[in-house]
């Protein structure tokens, strides 16, 4: 069975279908002649803004997402940073959204299974950033969001992914 679904978004619009992941790892990239995985360059959307076009051109080799025994890891294969938010990266009971910047060539554990189990028992918080899913990870290409950036919400980012993890 699958371990996650990936949704690709441009600002507030989901582009294409959910991409279901069955293998232990998946490449999510812009456009390569040879490559297997989720090719974002193949997704069509009419009337793209210039900002989205510029950001899409920066995705390049994108990310490698892999399911490991301790959690889910993202390796930044692009030439530009990625920005990540996940319930297991946040500080428990912190009222501020934490977005991590991951430079090219680096990886980060975007979801920790053990920490997730502990968080399931904490109280639900009000999130100003839209619906909250304790089993999802959000990754933006080249543009950050949150308290430290001009974009307060991920829906203001030109190109981003929603990783929906299976329980």
Automatic annotation (TrEMBL):
GO MF annotations in UniProt: I-SMAD binding; transcription regulator inhibitor activity
Gene3D superfamilies under this entry?
2.60.200.10
All copies of domain MH2, residue ranges: 3-167
Q: What domain of life is recorded for the organism? A: Eukaryota
Any one GO CC term of this protein is:
heteromeric SMAD protein complex
Q: Which GO terms describe its biological process?
A: anatomical structure morphogenesis; BMP signaling pathway; cell differentiation; regulation of transcription by RNA polymerase II; SMAD protein signal transduction
PROSITE patterns xref list: MH2 (PS51076)
Q: Where are the transmembrane segments?
A: none
Record flagged with keyword Methyltransferase = no
InterPro entries, A to Z: Dwarfin (IPR013790), SMAD-like_dom_sf (IPR017855), SMAD_dom_Dwarfin-type (IPR001132), SMAD_FHA_dom_sf (IPR008984)
Q: Does the keyword Transcription regulation apply?
A: yes
Could you list this entry's UniProt keywords, alphabetically sorted.
Transcription, Transcription regulation
Tell me what this protein is called: Mothers against decapentaplegic 6
Its source organism is Antrostomus carolinensis
């Amino acid at each position: 069975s699958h371990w996650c679904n990936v949704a690709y978004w441009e600002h507030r619009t989901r582009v294409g279908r959910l991409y279901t992941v069955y293998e232990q790892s998946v490449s999510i990239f812009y456009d390569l002649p040879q490559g297997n995985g989720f090719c974002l360059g193949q997704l069509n959307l009419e009337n793209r803004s210039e900002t989205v076009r510029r950001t899409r051109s920066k995705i390049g080799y994108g990310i490698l997402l892999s399911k490991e025994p301790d959690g889910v890891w993202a390796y930044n294969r692009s030439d530009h940073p990625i920005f990540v938010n996940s319930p297991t990266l946040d500080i428990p009971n912190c009222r501020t959204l934490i977005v991590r910047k991951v430079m090219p060539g680096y990886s980060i554990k975007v979801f920790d299974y053990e920490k997730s189990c502990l968080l399931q028992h904490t109280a639900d918080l009000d999130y100003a950033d839209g619906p909250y899913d304790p089993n999802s990870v959000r990754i933006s290409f080249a543009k950050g969001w949150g308290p430290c950036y001009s974009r307060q919400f991920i829906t203001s980012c030109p190109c981003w992914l929603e990783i929906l993890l299976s329980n």
